Write a sequence for this structure.
């Protein structure tokens, strides 16, 4: 390992093998930079407890972005409980049994996780409290990362790609989150998840593709609340948190956005395609839902209070129940060949299940469900991330005023009266594929359905 002198006497540590990287992670102090030489490192769990400062954070980075791979076969790879760490430009690769690439816990305030790629973890980034009384990380930034899984996660453990319990001021911004199927337990998984009495969180400008390279399970894009856990006694799971300017698509078995006991929530200027809109649930939920464009609709149920304005919903709230009806009917007849062996065999059951799936999927795509045809008429080719809108006159200048949202998915300034959805068309439109290539660099290579592959 080579060491140099950084700012104010801090060191630049340049590990080139697993042993020197392990020493650097244990040694690094405020102001130090761990600049990892190119290569693949099979690393065991490391606990990062030292504190940086606002002026002198501790940085882990690659000598060249995308040139360093950290492989994990542990339950978790990096546990961060110190303040002011920055992780930048690294690829994290797990296996079939890895839970977390990065676990942020306790008093780990002001951590930044940016410009990385995460592959094959149950919950690549996990955060929660630690200690008595428990302390929670605050003001953490998760930005411009790529998350993917090469196949379903066969586990009964939670599969929530970005899984945050508690804390104030979290920012989950500009990430690409794809392919997070849970195959086990309740089969329900989430792209990004704020819960546990989290406050003042922001989920913005993310691209969430529930199903990209593989299909299955019930995948929900983004969620405020629903974890059944609180850092203190509150009736709500999140408070004063926002989901804005996201593009969420291909979640055909559930809602794109779920608000579960989310007090004072704002869901605004999102574009949702091939998913069942927005679901708000329970009396603890109070939400403003405005200026979104969606397949499906907005469902307020079990006592939720939702103020709606300026939304374009292509389907109906009734459609939300079609996937659960399908799953229930398929499961109900699954053993009929054993119950009625003289009448039915296994082939008959598979045929009947196929008919049920086909019929209810057809209904789900139609006006009763998502209303896909209406958005297909608005956008050029949303299935391959082309959300240009040659027939989208009804989107232009159609929003209700919202001073809290100043830019769009691409970072363009909103021009009041703003356009509906995640893209401000009058600011020049948005070539999403080019934006993604610029945002993620070497972590997004040619290939895949939209000439992009987040997992190669």
């Amino acid at each position: 390992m080579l060491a140099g002198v950084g700012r104010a006497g801090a060191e630049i540590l340049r590990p080139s093998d697993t042993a020197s990287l392990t020493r650097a992670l244990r040694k690094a102090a405020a102001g130090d930079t761990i600049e990892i030489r190119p290569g693949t490192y099979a690393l065991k769990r490391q606990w990062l407890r030292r504190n940086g400062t606002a002026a002198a954070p501790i940085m882990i980075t690659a000598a060249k972005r995308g040139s360093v791979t950290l492989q994990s076969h542990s339950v978790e790879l990096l546990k961060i409980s110190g303040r002011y760490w920055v992780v930048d430009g690294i690829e994290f690769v797990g296996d079939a049994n890895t839970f977390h690439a990065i676990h942020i816990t306790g008093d780990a305030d002001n951590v930044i996780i940016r410009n990385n790629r995460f592959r094959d973890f149950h919950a690549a980034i996990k955060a929660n409290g630690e200690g008595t009384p428990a302390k929670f990380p605050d003001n953490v930034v998760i930005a411009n990362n790529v998350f993917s899984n090469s196949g379903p996660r066969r586990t009964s453990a939670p599969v929530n790609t970005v899984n945050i319990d508690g804390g104030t001021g979290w920012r989950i911004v500009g990430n690409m989150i794809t392919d997070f199927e849970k195959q086990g337990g309740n089969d329900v998984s989430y792209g990004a998840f704020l819960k546990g009495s989290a406050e003042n969180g922001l989920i913005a400008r993310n691209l969430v593709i529930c199903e990209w390279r593989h299909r299955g399970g019930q995948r929900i894009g983004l969620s405020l609340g629903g974890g059944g856990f609180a850092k203190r006694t509150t009736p709500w799971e999140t408070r004063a948190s926002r989901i804005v300017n996201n593009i969420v698509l291909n979640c055909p078995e559930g809602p794109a956005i779920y608000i579960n006991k989310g007090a004072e929530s704002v869901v605004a200027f999102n574009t949702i395609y091939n998913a069942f809109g927005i679901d708000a649930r329970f009396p603890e939920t109070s939400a403003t839902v405005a200026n979104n464009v969606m397949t499906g609709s907005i469902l307020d149920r079990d006592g939720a209070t939702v103020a709606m304005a300026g939304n374009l919903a292509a389907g109906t709230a009734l459609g939300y129940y079609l996937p659960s009806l399908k799953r229930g009917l398929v499961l109900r007849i699954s053993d009929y060949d054993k119950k009625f062996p003289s009448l039915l065999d296994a082939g008959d059951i598979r045929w009947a299940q196929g008919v049920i799936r086909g019929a209810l999927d057809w209904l789900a795509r139609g006006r009763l469900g998502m209303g896909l045809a209406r958005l297909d008429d608005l956008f050029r080719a949303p299935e391959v991330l082309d959300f240009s809108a040659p027939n989208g006159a009804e989107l232009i200048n159609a929003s209700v005023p919202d001073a809290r949202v100043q830019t769009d998915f691409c970072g363009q300034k909103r021009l009041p009266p703003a356009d509906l959805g995640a893209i401000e068309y009058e600011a020049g439109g948005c070539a999403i594929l080019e934006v993604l290539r610029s945002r993620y660099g070497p972590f997004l290579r040619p290939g895949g359905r939209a000439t992009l592959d987040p997992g190669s």
Notes: Residues 446-450 have pLDDT under 50 and may be disordered. Residues 286 and 305 are 5 Å apart (CA to CA).
